[in-house]
Amino acid sequence: MDRRDFLKKTIGGGIAAGSTLAFPGVGKLFAAPKGVSYDLVAVRGGEPDQMFDRAIASLGGMQTFVPRGSRVVVKPNIGWDLPPERGGNTHPALVGRIVEHCFSAGARGVSVFDHTCDNWRRCYTNSGIEAAVEAAGGKMVSADSEGYYKSVSVPQGQRLKTAKVHEALLKADVFINVPVLKHHSSAMLTIGMKNLMGVVWDRWYWHRNDLHQCIADFSSFRKPDLTVVDAYNVMKRNGPRGVSVSDVVPMKAQVVSTDPVAADAAGAKLFGADPGDIRHIRIASDMNLGQIRLETLSINRIKI
After folding, report:
1. Tens-place pLDDT, residues 113-155
2. Strand 71-76 and strand 174-178: pairing?
3. Dist CA 3 CA 54 (whole Å)
4. Which residues of the chain carry a pLDDT beneath 50?
5. Non-local CB neighbours of 289 within 8 Å, separated by 6+ positions
6. Is 89 helix (H, G, I), strand (E, B) or coil?
7. What value does the CA radius of gyration of the chain take, rounded to a whole number of Å?
8. Among 38, 111, 118, which residue's Cα sits nearest to residue 297?
9. FRET partner for 248 with CA separation of 20 to 30 A, picked from 14, 64, 115, 127?
10. pTM of the full predicted structure?
């Protein structure tokens, strides 16, 4: 499916006021719970922090992922100088709550950063993320200088064989990826794997050399210990920056998984897209980086 067909399919009916109309995948993803050991948790109906509390509890608590004394990196999307209601960045209440959970689990330190597209100081401040992180005891880290990045090899890279990665991630014991779900003019959607572009220095190489393949390639570098997809305010068109609040549908949903491909597949379903139509998700599945077939997973579906 090309970008024009994708946009027609997911946006052509307009932005509906209710999440069931705006997100045709919602019904199936939030069907009745099954099983007791979960590959993925899907939550809807609450505030970002409240939904994460429920999700992480069902996965055994943050101590399952954050050993005592560990150094944690939390990577939200903070790419744009926008307030939370515009849906361009990860919701600050979610990021702050994740930091709180990390410290409660015994983390030694929690660092948060993004290689932003707009001015990084304004992005950190106006997104609300800096205030939320610092209130929770975490540390915001700059990512605006090439000196912060070190060259690494990408294990399964086909188009992206090396990359310069932020030193905070390279030194971290635990990596939590916290993307916002939204439309993207080049990648069709930006979710978890696309969010990893914010840990590298030269993002433009990806755009020039088969963006979808580069996204999948880099996902083989380091698998996040946890991917938390923020679908509270979802930008359905004009992404990745958006034009106004009219681009955004309030969905009040969240997806949490240790499988980055499954998390992206679930995010695509929520958006109203077939995960197989999002090329980087399909490629990552073909590279055995995770599971695209959600029907094979044990999913805990929580309604608040």
Report:
1. 999 999 999 999 999 999 999 999 999 999 999 999 999 999 9
2. parallel
3. 35
4. 4, 6-25, 30-36
5. 156, 216, 219, 220, 223, 260, 261
6. coil
7. 17
8. 38
9. 115
10. 0.90
